[in-house]
Amino acid sequence: MMTIERLYELIVASAGESDSAWTGAECYDRTFEELGYDSLALIETMSRIEQEYGVSIPDEQVADLQTPRAVLSLVNKVIGG
User: Fold this and answer.
1) pLDDT tens digits, one per residue of 11-66
2) Could you say which of 8, 11, 22, 70 would form a disulfide bridge with 65 (CB–CB 3.0 to 4.6 Å)?
C-alpha cells in the first residue's frame, strides 16, 4: 500500500521540495498546483510509482489526478487488484 509519506518522498525526488507543507489531513485534498507542483512533476512521479510499485497508469488518466488523495486511491486500488 502506498502512503501519503511515500507519495511525498517520490514527488520530492522527482521535482524537488516545494514551499508548501504536506502536513495534516488537508494536504490530501489540496491540488498538486496548490502544493507547488505542476503536471510535469506529477508525470515524473507517476513514472517512479510505476517503477517501484509496478503500477502502470495511462498519461491521459494521470492528467485527471489532481490531488494526493486521487493518486493514492488509484494506485492503491490497482495494487490491491
Assistant:
1) 999 999 887 777 778 899 999 999 999 999 999 999 999 999 999 898 889 989 99
2) 70
Give the three-state DSSP class for 57. coil
pLDDT at 8 over 80: yes
**Nearest partner of 2 among 63, 39, 57, judged by Cα:** 57
Which residues, in sequence order, are CB contacts of 55 under 8 Å at separation 6+?
49, 75, 78, 79
Contact 49, 72 (CB under 8 A): no
Nearest CA to 48 among 19, 8, 17, 77? 8
70 CB burial (10 A radius; 0-12, 13-18, 19+): middle
Under a CB-based contact definition with an 8 Å cutoff, are residues 16 and 51 in contact?
Answer: no
